[in-house]
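ingest -> fold -> write
write: protein_1
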Amino acid sequence: MLNRVMSVVPLFKFIILTFSGFFDLGLPLGTFGPPDVLRLGFGPKMILTVIGIESIVTIVSRHRASTICDENGARRTVFAGLIAAILAALFLRGMAVGVN
């Protein structure tokens, strides 16, 4: 019985990391109150759809990201991801400029 328990203990690190990752993804959604979400033209169903799509995109793109990392190295892959994230943030900021 003790061996079975001890074999599960290393999994707790991954469970905590996974929980923390999803917690970090959902944390900013709490800053959008219902008036803000409705003013942007989105409802709760749209927020849940975005969260669901994010999970699907993560699963689908994980293989490609690991292939890029294997071919180009981790540092270049992370740098390319940061540039893509910055461009996406600028694009979204540009889309939200006209929203009051």
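write: protein_2
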Amino acid sequence: MKAGPLLRVSIMTTSSKTVFVSIKDLTEKFSTRAMGALVREKLLLDLSRHDKVVLDMGDIQMSPSFADECFGFLIVDLGLDTIRHRLSFVGADRQAKILLQHVMLRRSSNRSYAA
């Protein structure tokens, strides 16, 4: 029997230091700013409880609006250095990696001008 999505463990392990989370457990839609804000709030909660969050980005397609609202505003809230040290992405495809890099770098440069 081939392992399929039903056998996937979404939250693989939790400790006080690191939590592994599947983004699919946080929302089913990756297209709106409202959903991006919801996921950002959940990530902020995880970051307040754990030293590091490893986020599984496998098998999703996110819009630029979702990415900006979720990950761009994490940069605004916490700063790029904090996010680089405390949030890791796994399973993201090439398109998602490019989008994440663009959004996070754009927001980090906006944050430095606002400071």
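write: annotation protein_2
The longest strand covers residues 18-22.
Helices lie at 33-49, 64-78, 80-86, 94-114.
pipeline exit 0
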